[in-house]
Design goal:
- Pfam families: DDE_Tnp_1_7 (PF13843), zf-Tnp_2 (PF13842).
- InterPro entries: PGBD, PGBD4_Znf_C.
- This is PiggyBac transposable element-derived protein 4.
- The protein is an alpha+beta fold and 568 residues long.
- Among the domains are: 90 residues, no CATH class; 156 residues, no CATH class; 53 residues, no CATH class.
- The protein is 36% helix and 14% strand.
- It has 19 helices and 17 strands.
């Protein structure tokens, strides 16, 4: 029997033999530096003006800037396959020029008043979506629900842009003056006697809120869990892209919209103020202007599954490639692989890093440090470092060298920190500022459906963005509260009070006034149902009426008599 041949190499080994590793330009330069520096000063000091050459040639940079999307994906794959050589010096970070320009892409609207900036974002197209879809849904409810003649929906009248503007103005006002229940805004006691009922009745407001819709409920349009808010979400993102070009420094983080009801994609984030709710991924400028937003709907989401965090970053940044933007993110998103992908798109990134991420150098992630100490490594135009203050912080950057800089702490003492940490703390606060300001005046109610709450939240974000644009490009300066009040006054114009009818010239003695009903049998006076209480769904009898009105309606002395005649 012939002897069996000697087993050959395994499949992975055969692949390695067929595809020998080719060192990159960065790696060759690093090896040459290490081999030639044994008898010389090994490292430049932190104040050196030395600047490492770009890890990518000029020809390749030109090719990258004009590459198609498929070419960019190929470059990403190549970057992921290359193994990095990590060195302490010299820093080999790429120099990318910022070619964007922070500007308003349209002329300053109108007279530059707060309402002009809000209507710059909430334009005619926006109101057309709300008015058209709300009317369509109201007709659908009328046709498909069996409702009594006295129900609110049976009295539905089509809404127009003017009335929708007033509805939104009143909704924004409710965020300024918050009451426990929605119906409290129409109460008439001496503590809660608000003028809202002069502009819109309670029943009309509630029926508009019930029918508020952003898309037609057609089976053909039900694509994904967000189909009910997709038109409004797309409108917001497209409008911000067309109206405003941001400055160099951007950040990405999550924001939670409180929701404790049943919802398939409700999320939990323990370090947020609202731990349970609907998770938004936001791309913001360093001052808090929201440039792009996406809602996470679970692992079945287009951005879900493997590589979810990187997919979110690439999706939010898709309109800002190849301009030299600086992106700041926390450790949920950052990785060496993503940093190299962003560099291929001429975009910097800086932020904290998780120790378990792939390609993170172990001599940095596992280093034991004393307070104030730091360690770092450079590789492939990426810097990974660790610094210990009260606790160890692992970070990554493709823009800032790991120099130590002096910073003033909140206690007034000087502290030495790595430059990447300083820049991260400086530019990562945009989303927190946006969350903070919007939390002061929430207009949405917990009793409404989730998609209406999301829709009102998007409108609130448009209001916040318009305020930030007003602060940047117009005067006088004002607080967010003053800005909201100005917008509300413009959306809900003053209604001139009706002139009270004076005495008739034909009958000078004629005048409306309460009169006691005549006595019935015995000593008991006759009583009638109060007409005004009955209109509000309250059963109450009274011994007073108005003899000047037809049918002699029964009316309580206070406040029904006055309210009834004011609403004639």
């Amino acid at each position: 029997m012939a002897e069996s041949p000697t087993p050959g190499p395994s499949a992975p080994k055969r692949l390695r033999i067929k595809n020998p590793k080719v060192l990159t330009e960065d790696e060759l330069r690093a090896l040459a530096y290490l081999s030639s520096s044994s008898d010389e000063e090994p490292f430049p000091d932190s104040g050196s003006d030395w600047s490492g050459a770009s890890g990518i040639s000029d020809e390749r940079q030109d090719a990258m800037s004009t590459a198609s999307q498929s070419d960019m994906e190929l470059l990403d794959d190549v970057a992921n396959e290359q193994q990095l050589v990590w060195i302490e010096y010299p820093p080999n970070l790429r120099q990318i020029e910022f070619t964007g320009k922070q500007q308003l892409n349209v002329p300053i609207p109108g007279e530059g008043k707060p309402i002009d900036f809000f209507l710059l974002l909430a334009d005619d197209e926006f109101f057309e979506i709300l008015v058209q879809q709300t009317n369509i849904y109201a007709e659908h409810v009328l046709l498909n629900e069996s409702s009594g003649p006295n129900s609110r929906i049976s009295r539905w009248k089509p809404i127009d842009k003017e009335e929708m503007t007033m509805f939104l103005g009143l909704t924004i006002f409710m965020g300024i003056l918050q009451l426990p229940r929605l119906r409290d805004y129409w109460r008439t006691n001496r503590f809660l006697n608000l003028p809202i009922r002069k502009y819109m009745s309670r029943d009309r407001y509630l029926i508009i809120l019930r029918c508020l819709h952003f898309v037609e409920n057609s089976q053909d349009l039900k694509s994904g869990r967000l189909y009910k808010v997709r038109p409004l979400l797309n409108f917001f993102n497209n409008k911000m892209e067309s109206v405003y070009s941001p400055g160099k420094n951007l950040s990405i983080d999550e924001s939670m919209l409180l929701w404790r009801g049943r919802l398939a994609f409700r999320q939990y984030i323990k370090n947020k103020k609202h731990k349970y709710g609907i998770k938004f991924y936001l791309l913001t400028e360093s001052n808090g202007i929201v440039l792009n937003m996406q809602i996470y709907t679970g692992v079945l989401d287009d951005l879900g599954g493997k590589g979810h965090a990187a997919n979110v970053v690439l999706h939010l940044m898709r309109n800002y490639w190849n301009k030299g933007y600086s992106l700041y993110m926390d450790n949920y998103y950052n990785s060496v692989t993503l940093a190299r992908q962003l560099l291929e798109k001429n975009t910097y990134c800086t932020g904290t890093l998780r120790a378990g991420r792939k390609e993170t150098p172990e001599d940095v992630s596992k280093a034991k440090l004393k307070p104030g100490e730091s360690v770092h490594r450079y590789g492939g135009s990426v810097c990974v470092g660790k610094w210990k203050d009260k606790r160890e912080v692992l970070y990554i950057t493709t823009e800032h060298e790991n120099t130590m800089e002096e910073a003033l702490s909140r206690f007034g003492t000087n502290k030495i920190k790595p430059a990447p940490i300083m820049q991260y703390n400086k530019y990562m606060s945009g989303i927190d500022l946006q969350d903070q300001l919007q939390s002061y005046y929430p207009s949405h109610r917990k009793t409404i459906r989730w998609y209406k709450k999301v829709g009102i939240h998007i409108i609130e974000t448009m209001l916040y963005n318009s305020y930030m644009l007003y602060e940047k490009y117009s005067k006088p300066k004002m607080s967010f509260l003053e800005y909201r009040e100005s917008v509300v006054h413009a959306m809900v114009p003053e209604i001139k009070a009706k002139e009270k009818p004076g005495p008739s010239t034909e009958n000078p003695g004629f005048q409306h006034g309460p009169s006691k009903l005549e006595k019935g049998t015995g000593d008991r006076r006759l009583r009638k149902k109060c007409r005004w209480c009955s209109k509000r769904g309250v059963r109450k009898d009274t011994s007073f009426c108005c003899k000047s009105c037809p049918e002699l309606p029964g009316l309580c002395l206070d406040p029904c008599f006055k309210e009834y005649h004011n609403n004639l």
